[in-house]
């Protein structure tokens, strides 16, 4: 808990590893045992053919909700599945209390299909500022953390995104067309040009990790759900990257962003992607 009026930074100095342990426990108890073992009754549709939810999502979120709230009394938890059940609960992101932002299984479609490309995402924010994040791909045995002002790390090694290689096409992960408006589709068409190699995205959390590692160059995403973006955006920032909306402002986890937006390995690449999105709009 936050004691004697300590700051979030002081709390994180004591508890960053505790949060990591809770994330690992949630995955070990509720997610990994169901990977490639899901029964039909454990999988449901939410809003469309690509929007799946499983018992692993629900149970891991419940586990993390209880554990994180207990670790930081006075905090609130905004989880993807809880917001699906009660959309009004999302408003806590815009409040002043510390808020845990949780995506229990980011990449549920991949999880259901037995792929390894899924992860658990947790971020701690306050007043719209993300202070720390945890990204765990349990089957790949990868754990990335970021703490504002203290860098980004993967399995204990410092992450530095670097810059794209000169002369090589920019590798840009983009939103699936099913999740874009007509206006956003026109903006994304700006990426279909010489010098850019766009492709459909997978798990948002793992796309951000790929940027922080320098394996991918940028994203172009068209949705705002904070559980998909909060953890990864801080990871990219702390690895030396940048994020911008189409108006040239950093992405705000509280919403109201002009979409699509980008996260990129460096500021120059972020500006380049935004220019292309504007050209296509």
Automatic annotation (TrEMBL):
Keywords: Hydrolase, Magnesium, Metal-binding. InterPro entries: Inositol_monoP_metal-BS, Inositol_monophosphatase-like, Inositol_monophosphatase_CS. It catalyses: a myo-inositol phosphate + H2O = myo-inositol + phosphate. Coiled coil: none annotated. It is an enzyme of class 3 (hydrolase). Residues 156-175 are annotated as: Disordered. Its EC number is 3.1.3.25. Residues 156-171 have a biased composition (Basic and acidic residues). The keyword Hydrolase applies. This is inositol-phosphate phosphatase. It comes from Streptomyces pimonensis. The lineage of its organism: Bacteria, Bacillati, Actinomycetota, Actinomycetes, Kitasatosporales.
């Amino acid at each position: 808990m936050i004691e004697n009026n300590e700051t979030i930074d002081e709390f994180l100095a004591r508890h960053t590893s505790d949060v990591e342990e809770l994330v690992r426990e949630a995955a070990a108890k509720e997610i990994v045992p169901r990977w490639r073992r899901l029964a039909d009754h454990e999988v449901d549709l939410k809003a469309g053919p690509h929007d799946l939810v499983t018992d692993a999502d629900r149970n891991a979120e419940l586990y993390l909700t209880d554990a994180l709230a207990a670790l930081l009394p006075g905090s609130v938890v905004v989880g993807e599945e809880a917001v699906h059940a009660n959309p009004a609960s999302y408003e806590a992101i815009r409040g002043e209390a510390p808020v845990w932002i949780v995506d229990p299984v980011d990449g549920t479609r991949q999880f259901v299909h037995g792929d390894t490309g899924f992860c658990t995402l947790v971020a701690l924010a306050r007043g719209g500022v993300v202070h720390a994040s945890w990204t765990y791909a349990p089957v790949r045995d990868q754990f990335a953390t970021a703490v504002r002002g203290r860098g980004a790390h993967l399995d204990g090694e410092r992450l530095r995104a670097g810059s794209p290689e000169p002369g090589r096409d920019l590798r840009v992960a983009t939103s699936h067309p099913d999740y874009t408006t007509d206006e956003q589709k026109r903006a994304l068409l700006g990426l279909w040009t010489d010098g850019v190699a766009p492709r459909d995205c997978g798990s948002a959390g793992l796309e951000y990790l790929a940027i922080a590692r320098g394996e991918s160059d940028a994203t172009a995403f068209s949705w705002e759900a904070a559980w998909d973006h909060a953890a990864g955006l801080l990871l990219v920032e702390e690895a030396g990257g940048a994020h911008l909306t189409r108006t040239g402002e950093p992405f705000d986890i509280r919403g109201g962003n002009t979409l699509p937006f980008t996260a990129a390995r460096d500021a120059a690449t972020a500006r380049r992607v935004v220019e292309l999105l504007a050209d296509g709009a």
